[in-house]
Amino acid sequence: MIKTNAILILPENITNKIAAGEVIERPASIVKELLENSIDALSTQITVSIKNSGKSVIKILDDGIGMIRDDALLSLERHATSKISSLDDLSTIKTLGFRGEALSSIASIARLNIISKTKDDETGTQIFIEGGKIRDVKQIASPTGTSVEVNQIFFNTPARKKFLKSDITEMSYISQTFNTISLAYPSIKFRLIKYDKEAVNTSASGDLEIRIGDLFGKDLVKDLIPISREANKMKLSGYISRPSFSLSGRRNQFFYVNNRCVRDKSVNHAIYDAYRTLLPKGRHPTLFLFLDVSPAEVDVNVHPAKAEVRFANQRLVHDFIYHAVFKTLSQHKEQHYKDIFQINNTTTGTAHDALKSGRQVDKEKFVDTTFFKFFTCRDQNSKPSANIDFNMPSPTTQNYHRYSDCVPVGQIENSFIVLENSSNMILVDQHTAHERILFEKLEKEFKESKIEKQKLLFPISVELSHGESVLLENHLEDVNKTGMEVECFGKNIFLIREVPSILEGKDFSALLLEIVEILAEAEKTESFEQIFTETFKILACHGAIRANQNLKHEEIQNLLLTLDKTELPYTCPHGRPISLVFSLKDIKKKFLRI
Ligand SMILES: Nc1ncnc2c1ncn2[C@@H]1O[C@H](COP(=O)(O)OP(=O)(O)O)[C@@H](O)[C@H]1O
Ligand SMILES: [Mg+2]
Predict the structure, then answer these.
(1) What phi and psi, each to the nearest 5 degrees, are found at residue 592?
(2) What is the largest CA-CA distance in the chain?
(3) Domain 367-594: CATH class, spelled out
(4) For the chain, does the N or the C end have fewer beta carbons within 10 angstroms?
(5) Which residue from 37, 94, 260 has its CB within 8 A of the most atoms of ligand 1, so it is best to mutate?
(6) pLDDT tens column, 290-340
(7) Contact 489, 516 (CB under 8 A)
(8) What's the CATH architecture for 8-200?
(9) How far is the CA of 9 from the centre of ligand 2 (A)?
(10) What ligand is nearest to the CA atom of residue 148?
């Protein structure tokens, strides 16, 4: 980190190695560059003031190291920076800025008022600059630090001004930028002021969880799981959303490399792969992920807005992230089972044991409030209980109970298993539960190349269209690795000779058609590595117990025990929930018993 500014103009042999390009597109780009400058200047408090979505005023005030008069003047030149001075520095960049272009670009398209003072100087320097031309420089009294006020952006380039979007859109870009940067520096205090009214005021606790709460609300924090993994000199930390929590958009996804927020296709792919069977189509996880790697392992100088990076070993990073996220999601289960049983053992153990053995107990006595915090419904619509509310209490899809430790009460519609434990009534969708079990079984057997198969007594022949036959023929080898044994039998006719044993007695021709669907999709999107997972989803779905199927007591017990052994017992592989939890407390409230 820099201690004092000593700005130099970069020589040409360095500037032509820097990813060049326009960085100022919109008000939010100015906010980004100025925030980064304040952070590089070691500020502890930064205030962003915005008027008219930044179109008329953007002001950033910091308490950082400031600039002496000469540096303040020099900072406005192109390629003027205090952050690098040699080519070698480019490969070990630790500051957010390094190109020396932001202030000069901003100065060229707006009216700027800069005030800066170092702690050793008596007075500060104030500079007015308009469209790149310095209008006035004077010494004035000011606190240590820097304030940069940007007025009337694009005043001299009306054509570009026309490209700005509505106030609401530009302001949402600014908020996103503000959130993105302030998330990465929880020990710096950030304030956001819109039209003289405070919109955000964070603490400076240094704690990421508190920062997330400050920016996104404390409710979101409840839906997050901490992640922390280290391997091969890489470290991944932060928070990811629980499998039962998802959003329809990607706006709550933040990924940082060495504290710089970046987009990276391969990292994205790794994360979605880990969540693959947990989220329904079109749903997205919330992510606050920080990857630390040695600066030499990552090139930050590949994108003008520094929004992308290049890893020396892309594959290694991809695999590390996939495993870190996957392991965290699967361990999440154990973690919460443990939490619950610790509490249960000390306070509600007796009730629980009694329930299991079928004895009648006064359950009321054993209601434990701490236990509830894991099950509380997020019932946004619950009204004060003055009126009688005939609606069912809202269930949660949280899975913090060990299924096999609950007592099966029965089945509804021969489709949903009803369970109870000392605090909850739980509904389990027998089909999605069994799908999850079969899916993980197939995947495991596939990895060990020993999918349990079953030879059909009479091979089944399926006739496909010409297009379908071509697809299937092309991928026959892959299909036959999934436990199927399909053979081409002349013109557009295929014989199914063997199937995974979980499919005993099912409709195989319908199944084959669905597999062909997967192949078509894989061809269309050129994502062939998904063929196996997608096929296992279909096989699991076909093999699983259906709805409307009566289950014997032992069958239910067995299902629950096996479900507990799965790695991700939250949703079926397509992302549909396995269980709904209704807290008894809520049920009693509805009956006006408490
Ligand atoms: N808020 C600030 N506090 C102290 N120095 C600053 C501040 N903003 C800019 N500077 C100085 O001005 C220089 C130029 O800034 P900029 O044009 O953003 O380029 P870069 O950040 O890439 O170096 C910086 O290197 C830094 O020395
Ligand atoms: Mg900068």
Answers:
(1) 55, 40
(2) 95
(3) alpha beta
(4) N
(5) 37
(6) 999 998 888 887 877 778 889 999 999 999 999 999 999 988 876 555 443
(7) no
(8) 2-Layer Sandwich (3.30)
(9) 14
(10) 1
